């Protein structure tokens, strides 16, 4: 019986669910879902943009171009996305602003997860009126 299974694998037949580890099965299902892959590539692009971009583009986001010729400049070789109304490079500001936005999003997600877990634990442990009160409060939120 085992010899037939080995021969079947050698012939190039598809793997069964028993051949995958749990992580392998999750990764396989994720790669088969096209919309999930689009989202994963977008997330990877954003992370690379905000963390690797400042290493390549070494302009300080707060440096202002002196004089009136630096205000509201359109895209150029020196400033690919132009400058703002204070003469600061828009691309450099996007790099550093993206870091702050990702940090705030991650922090708020972790805070809401922690708060939800605590409320769920208290509601589950005490039950009864505490559960009903906490769930109505959660519904109102």
Automatic annotation (TrEMBL):
Q: Which parts pass through the membrane?
A: 35-57, 100-126
Name the UniProt record assigns to this protein = Peptide ABC transporter permease
Localization, per the record, is:
Cell membrane
Entry keyword Lipid biosynthesis = no
| Organism (species) | Candidatus Cryosericum septentrionale
One family name in Pfam for this protein? OppC_N
Going by the UniProt record, its keywords in alphabetical order are:
Membrane, Transmembrane, Transmembrane helix, Transport
Residue ranges annotated for the Oligopeptide transport permease C-like N-terminal domain, each copy included: 22-65
One Gene Ontology cellular component term attached to this UniProt record is: plasma membrane
InterPro entries linked: BP-dependent_transpt_permease, OppC_N
Membrane topology, from the record: Multi-pass membrane protein
């Amino acid at each position: 019986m085992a010899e037939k299974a080995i021969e079947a694998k050698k012939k190039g037949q598809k793997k069964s669910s028993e051949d995958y580890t749990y992580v392998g099965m999750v990764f396989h299902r994720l790669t088969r879902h096209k919309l999930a892959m689009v989202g994963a590539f977008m997330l990877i692009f954003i992370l690379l943009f905000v963390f690797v971009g400042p290493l390549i583009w070494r302009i300080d986001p707060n440096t202002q171009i002196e004089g009136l010729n630096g205000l509201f400049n359109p895209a150029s070789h020196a400033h690919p996305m132009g400058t703002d109304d204070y003469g600061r490079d828009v691309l450099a500001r996007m790099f550093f602003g993206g870091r702050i936005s990702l940090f705030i999003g991650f922090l708020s997600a972790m805070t809401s997860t922690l708060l939800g877990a605590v409320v769920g634990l208290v509601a589950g442990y005490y039950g009864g009126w505490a559960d009903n009160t906490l769930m109505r409060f959660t519904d109102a939120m």
